[in-house]
Amino acid sequence: MAAPGLATGGGNWFSALALGVTLFKCLLIPTYHSTDFEVHRNWLAITHSLPVSQWYYEATSEWTLDYPPFFAWFEYALSHIAKYFDQEMLNVHNLNYSSTRTLLFQRFSVIFTDVLFVYAVHECCKCIDGKKAGKELTEKPKFILSVLLLWNFGLLIVDHIHFQYNGFLFGLMLLSIARLFQKRYMEGAFLFAVLLHFKHIYLYVAPAYGIYLLRSYCFTANKPDGSIRWNSFSFVRLISLGLIVFLVSALSLGPFLALNQLPQVLSRLFPFKRGLCHAYWAPNFWALYNALDKVLSVIGLELKLLDPNKIPKASMTSGLVQQFQHTVLPSVTPMATLICTLMAILPSVFCLWFKPQGPRGFLRCLILCALSSFLFGWHVHEKAILLAVLPMSLLSVGKAGDASIFLILTTTGHYSLFPLLFTAPELPIKILLMLLFTVYSISSLKTLFRKEKPLFNWMETFYLLGLGPLEVFCEFVFPFISWKLKYPFIPLLLTSVYCAVGITYAWFRLYVSVLTDPPIRKTKKQ
Length: 526
What we know:
GO cellular component, one term: endoplasmic reticulum membrane
Signal peptide: 1-18
Oligomer: single chain
Largest sheet: none
Radius of gyration: 24 Å
Keywords: Endoplasmic reticulum, Glycosyltransferase, Membrane, Signal, Transferase, Transmembrane, Transmembrane helix
Strand content: under 5%
Structural class: mainly alpha
Number of helices: 23
Pfam families: Alg6_Alg8
Order of helices and strands: HHHHHHHHHHHHHHHHHHHHHHH
Protein name: Alpha-1,3-glucosyltransferase
Shape: globular
Helix content: 55-70%
């Protein structure tokens, strides 16, 4: 990847990386795709065939439209290209329809929209401090960051095998982060507001944006000790930020407000009637909670302390969302998860306000908001870990401590995505891809910080190496033992719980770093 010609060609090496990953994505077109492929095909059909007034009511398919309006309009725009590939894919009643042309269209639509992600990565690289740059191209922080983002294992398998449109959405997020690093606050705020109306999961990180923009843009100066100069508050800037949010929201939700359908849209976006966890438990605090409940229920049955007829049945293997009722521990309500999430986020937001550390402080707060929401949120999907992994890539090339946290978070978070690809042909693909990405991440960051202490201690090394035996057991041992019939959920449970430990540990380490780092003590004027 580090050919001599690339080093002399300025941005040629970046173009080569982007072209290389694009060609690789094309190779993944024939691979397995999940039910999300049918979800998005159905959304193409809904937005193309029905009037706007029926988009959020249509329920012929179980995969109803449950993304914000901007994404619905995105599907609408795609549908007008799709009709030239295969008109049948746009029939609402053609449930589970698939054809070669439909496959090619949907796969290539994801690849094409990734152009925004590539541009965002390029902009983020401009924000990276190059002081640690080595003589070789492969040792430069910008090169390492480009590989970590463009070739991110999690994004590759989720978008280009499993099938989703996360690339351009993360492109919007990374571009908004880059604009804040460049002190182009209005652009950053606008991009994030647009992003929220494409996919509402980004509400996870909204507190970081709100506090940082208020602290760094609406207040125009700090005292020498880093605290706010309260008389520097700009009401005009606050109004301008509010106007951006209002206008973007009006453009998105206005048509449905006019149709008196806003409650229906919101009920689709926030389906609290779904269970605490997805069919496959995301590796978070509730996975540990559920596992403890499972263990206690098994012990209770063995000791005949529980009545088997009164234990609720729950499936962890289907793709459909199902309620999970706890047997021994108290059941968890949406309000309980909201309180836990807010309590987990508050310290990071407090530090962002009272211990300003510049754009890097904002980025750390953003990651902590994402991780806190992932760990304690209601009905979290395992794919949401990418919301923390991708921004953490920017921190990883700055400090050795952040690189260590990044490697633990990324390796664990990426492995937790393995159950998404459960078909045999994809087994060698996911193992090889993750090995290549993980080996590159560790070796490149070790080289970048070779003059500092080791990135892992013995305990962290032991934990990460434990992923190997776990994979061997889940894929090559468990299918051939008698437990498969009685306890089919064990591989998913072990994967979820083991990864939850690593992700929680990374969250804790990052929090310690944020709480103990001193604020930047210099006067700022903007």
